[in-house]
Amino acid sequence: MNETFINQPITAAIIDDEEAARFNIKDALRTHKHWHIVGEADNGRDALSIINDTQPDVVFLDIQMPFQNGVSLAKQLLKNRHQPIIVFVTAYDAYAVQAFELYALDYILKPFDNPRFEATIERVESLLAQPEQEQALKQHYNGYAKQDFLKRLVLRSAGSIRVINIDDIIWFSSESNYVAIHHKDGTHLHRVSLSFLEQHLDPDIFVRTHRTAIVRLEQCREIKVLTENRSIITLANGDQVGLSKAYKDVLITRLEYEK
What we know:
Elements: E1 10-15, H1 19-29, E2 35-41, H2 44-54, E3 58-61, H3 70-78, E4 85-90, H4 96-101, E5 106-109, H5 114-128, H6 131-145, E6 152-157, E7 160-165, E8 169-175, E9 178-183, E10 186-190, H7 194-200, E11 206-210, E12 213-216, E13 220-225, E14 230-235, E15 240-244, H8 245-257
Parallel strand pairs: 1-2, 1-3, 3-4, 4-5
Antiparallel strand pairs: 6-7, 8-9, 8-12, 9-10, 11-12, 13-14, 14-15
Helix pairs in contact: 2-3
C-alpha cells in the first residue's frame, strides 16, 4: 500500500441496488481506517444528488440499476466540476471495455475476493498520492466529456457527393467491404468499417447489437428470441436486425433503464 497517502482521509460513495453488495464493499473497507463512506444509493437517480452533495474522492458504481444505469451516470459525472475517481463494480463482464472507454480507474467483477479489492484500493491510493497522475486522469475525463462525435457522413461517388446527417440514420449493417447506411431517405453504401463507426458515434444514441449491426437505440420496438444465441430486433420502420447473445443483456438493460 502507498505509505505517502495511507494516513490521509479518502471519501467514498457506494452506488449499488443490492444491499448485500453495498455491505460487501463497506466490509472490505473496514480495515482501511482512513477511508470514509460519505454516501450510499440504491439507484442511479438518487446517486447523482448524493455524489453532488458529498463530493467523494471515489465512487464505487454498479452498472445495472433502476432508473439510470451506471454507465449513463458515469457519463454525467464526467461533465461535473467535481469529478470523482470511478470504480465500476459489476457482475457483467461485457461492460468492462465500455467502463475503461469512460476512463474509469478500474472495474471489479462480482463476487470479488479480498486480493482483487485490495488491488483496486492500492491503485486508487497510488493515484491520489501523485497529484500529477490524478491531474492526468482528470484531463482524460475532460477529454471524454468534450468528445465530438460524428455529425454527418459524406459519401463520394462518381459525379456526386451525398451528405447524410447522423440524426437521420436508423441503423448500420455490414455489407462485405462496405457499411449499409439505413436512413430516413433510403439505404446507401459507404466504404467504412463498423468498428470505426462504433468508435465515433455517440454511445448514448447508438448501440452495437451484432458483429454486423449498429442501431439507433430509440428505434428499437420489439425483441424476439429465436434461439439461445440469436434474437431479432424489430425497428420502428419495420426493419429487422440481428441481436447476438454477446450484446443482448447490454441492449435490454439500456432499453429498460436509460432515459
